[in-house]
Write a structure and sequence with these properties.
Radius of gyration: 21 Å
Keywords: Coiled coil
Oligomer: single chain
Shape: elongated
Structural class: alpha+beta
Number of strands: 3
Distance between the termini: 22 Å
Order of helices and strands: HEEEHH
Strand order of the largest sheet: 1-2-3
Strand content: 5-15%
Number of helices: 3
Largest sheet: 3 strands, antiparallel
Length: about 150
């Protein structure tokens, strides 16, 4: 009999645990690539008025965001180039630097998307595995507690 959940990439409890490990590795690789992009931007544009920063946002999770370089309290907040603050910043930049900011912003956006998708999938698989194992432990079903 074909499983009604065959469309799931992992297909079984053991497969879910394998996929969870794969996702952890992929998330770590995405974070490393984010840090590398951050360092590349900072070394290439050491005097830029804003830098890419890997940080954690409550709603969005980890990702690359823009932060002003000044030491004011306002500079400590992160922002997006598509927002009001970002558009104001872009308007002050020379065309070549503006183009570089937009290129880096696009790369950062794709990395953020890739990380977020994998992170969310990992969270959902974690929930699935925890609930399945809790039921297996409570009712003695050993077929779902392996893997």
């Amino acid at each position: 009999m074909k499983s009604p959940y065959a469309w799931l990439s992992f297909g079984s409890h053991a497969g879910a645990k394998r996929r969870r490990r794969e996702l952890q590795t992929e998330c770590e690789a995405a974070l490393l690539e984010m840090r590398q992009l951050q360092e590349t931007f900072r070394s290439r544009y050491p005097n830029a008025p804003a830098w890419l920063t890997v940080s954690h946002r409550a709603r969005s999770g980890r990702g690359l965001w823009w932060r002003m370089r000044a030491k004011s309290p306002q500079a400590q907040s992160i922002f997006e180039l598509s927002g009001e603050r970002g558009r104001k910043l872009l308007a002050t930049l020379p065309p070549a630097l503006r183009a570089a900011f937009l290129d880096y912003n696009q790369h950062a956006g794709l990395l953020n998307l890739a990380y977020t998708i994998r992170s969310l999938e990992q969270q959902r698989i974690d929930t699935y595995v925890e609930r399945t194992e809790a039921l297996a432990q409570q009712f003695g079903d050993k077929t779902h507690s392996r893997g």
